[in-house]
Amino acid sequence: MRSVPRSVERLIEELNRLPGIGPKTASRLTFYLLRSPQEQVQALARAIGEMHEMVVTCSVCFNIAETSPCPICDDSQRDRTMLCVVEEPLDVLAIERIRQYDGLYHVLHGAISPIEGMGPEDLKIAELVERLGKNPVEEVILATNPSLEGESTAMYVSRQLATLGIRVTRLAQGLPMGGDLEYADEVTLTRALEGRREI
Amino acid sequence: MHLAHLSITNFRNYVRCELDFSSPITIVQGANAQGKTNLLEAVYYLAAAESPRARSDRELINWLANEEQPPFARLEGRIEGSDAVREVSIALVNASDRLQKEIRVNGVKRRTLDLVGQMKVVLFMPEDIDLIAGSPKARRGYLDSAISQMERPYARSLHEYNRVLLQRNSLLRQLRDRPSGTHQLDFWDQRLIEEGSQLIASRLNTVAQLDELVQEIHTRLTGGEERLRLIYRCSLPLEGPEGLIQYRQLPLGGASGDGTSLAEALPSSADVSTVFRQQLAERQREEIDRGMTLVGPHRDDLRFLVGGVDMCTYGSRGQQRTIAVSLKLAEMDLIRSRTGEEPILLLDDVMSELDEDRRRYLMAAMHRDQQAIITTTDLHCFTASFLEQATVWGVQDGRIGRLA
After folding, report:
1. Same domain membership, residue A99 and residue A192
2. What is the Cβ-side half-sphere exposure of residue A84, based on CA atoms within 13 angstroms?
3. For chain B, which terminal residue's Cβ has fewer other Cβ atoms within 10 angstroms, N or C?
4. Which of A119, A152, A159 minimises the CB distance to B188?
5. Share of chain B above pLDDT 90, in %
6. Is A114–B167 a contact, with Cβ atoms under 8 angstroms apart?
């Protein structure tokens, strides 16, 4: 005997597969949708369906977009002498939000991590080298995460670019803004001291 | 350093227990399986955030507490140090799928790395004989936790080193199947050398200091019969053929020249990293074939020599037990001289295993102002004068009370 209809159970199972959603949240969302007006539910279903149909990876920078090349790569106003290399599409969003950088991007889709079986060939590194060979820039900014894996990726990429004669820089590391010196951990403080600069 | 108050909830066989440690020496007497070791384990856990004997932290939660939702264990301590009073607490919560460990120092959530070293303890239990007789891994683990208590950067380097090692071994195995791309090793090699050299240099320094301290202790403990030397056996050829001979020829018996030459003679982390780099380059082929990192602090060992004979292999049980006592007493002295704090001594039923002379020596070795928590089945192990200055408690079935 089944206590909830099969179709309701199916939606709960599907929602449960999403990151950060457990069985309880999944049932709560399902029953919320059950009570929602028809149009609203239809809109949600369409949005999910269309997202997959519409979204493509940009053939130049490998960011997610609805067109290829993406609006950033296509924008003639942007500075074509600078290229920022990031791990994930979300990192592009983070950098775009600050409105200080108007160069181009390259999304690697991950970082080198041998434990997870992620090698350089699983990332868009060969594509980056090829891209820079065709359209050289003046500076490449490596904006991978300051984690062990991100550092490893940055070092690997910088080695690959060494032969191209392009200036390669790495994002600064150190104290967060509004932070307190007293509470910074040793590694962060060491990095901040190493990366100090004239004012 | 003094643990003034300890509060235990659902830890091992304790359901709820509040203890005030008023005098420096506390003796806890009880029959077997009443909770003597569990009490010392609780204190040690609060200092190191790891158990000296449990394989999983889940074991630590009182099994009666499993009926509560969710099951949890909690330890709280008030530590009076030379400079400040600190409140530390650890809560273990057995959530549906994983065990959560929440550490707080003065009420603020902290990482394990921040907790270790807040309270310095030296634990001695009968199993410690395995330090001498057991595997190199146990001896490395001993050195690691001993140094982590004294040097904060050490614990961090160790954590980082282990992560790099895991990634590097994984990469070596991938390279075995796909030999191209050995340049991917460059980054991991560099990080392995950076952290590994720090670890080895710290260990060499600590072992040299322990070696010096243990000389006098062990000589007195054995009535002048044995002279003990500690040797750090490194997987890297740090000494070279000539160096090794020189080391062996150091005069036995504490007189290693004047004390200052000792530190200068030791290789620095820069020296270590040069040798480390050479070794990784030389042995890359072999490492890829075997799919693992063959040199580094994770392959080193600590050995104990008496009259040039390796006690790990050839020592009698009695000799090994005495060496373990000497080692712990030397560690206590080292913590005192390096950090300026009196470590808390935890002795688990050790007295009954020692003969009369060694017992007396051990009791005499405790400083007047040093805190010690000692468990025993039999109060006759102690001298009358020692019992007089101690607070004596009895433990029965997870409950502790003052003995008349």
Report:
1. yes
2. 24
3. C
4. A152
5. 61
6. yes
A150 to chain B, closest Cα gap in Å:
11
Q: Is A156 on the interface with B (CB under 8 A)?
A: yes
Nearest-neighbour CA in chain B from A63: distance (Å): 25
pLDDT range class, residue B102, cuts 50, 70, 90: very high
Domain containing residue A103: 70-198
Instruction: For strands A56-57 and A64-65, give the pairing.
Output: antiparallel
pLDDT computed for residue B246 by the predictor: 41
Nearest to B166 among A115, A120, A159 (CB): A115
B window 147-186, beta carbon within 8 A of A: 152-153, 156, 160, 163-164, 166-168, 170-171, 174, 181, 183-184, 186
For the residues of A132-161, what is the DSSP string, one character each? Answer: HHHS--SEEEE---SSHHHHHHHHHHHHHH
Could you tell me if residue A61 is inside a domain?
no
Cite the DSSP H helix spans in chain A: 6-16, 23-35, 38-54, 71-74, 89-97, 125-134, 148-161, 186-194
Confidence band, pLDDT 50/70/90 cuts, at residue B264: low
Closest Cα in chain A, distance from residue B162 (Å): 12
Nearest CB to B163: which of A112, A148, A187? A148
For residues B53-66, average pLDDT: 83
**Same domain, residue pair A79 and A145:** yes
Q: Chain-wide mean pLDDT for chain B? A: 88
**A140 and A174 housed in the same domain:** yes
Does A98 share its domain with A24? no
A119 at interface of B, judged by CB pairs closer than 8 A: yes
Residue A167 lies in a domain: yes
**What are the residues whose beta carbons fall under 8 Å from the beta carbon of B143, sequence distance 6 or more?**
B203, B206, B207, B302
State pTM to two decimals: 0.83
B51/B63 Cα distance (integer angstroms):
17
Phi, then psi, of B255 in degrees rounded to 5? -85, 70
What letter does residue B61 receive in the DSSP assignment? B
CATH number of domain containing A106: 3.40.1360.10
Query: Which of A152, A180, A182 would best serve as a mutation to test chain B binding (most B beta carbons within 10 A)?
Result: A152
* Minimal C-alpha gap between A94 and chain B (Å): 27
Domains of chain A: total: 2
Q: Per-residue pLDDT averaged across A57-61, rounded?
A: 93
The CATH code of the domain that includes A28 is 1.10.8.420
Is B242's pLDDT higher than 70?
A: no
Name the residue facing B174 among A114, A152, A159 (closest C-beta).
Answer: A114
Q: Mean per-residue pLDDT for B249-254?
A: 43
Weakest-pLDDT range from A77-81, A162-166, B92-96, B158-162: B92-96
pLDDT tens digits along A103-113: 999 999 999 99
The answer to whether residues A120 and A185 belong to one domain is yes
Domains of chain B: 1-120+341-404 (3.40.50.300), 128-340 (1.20.1050.90)
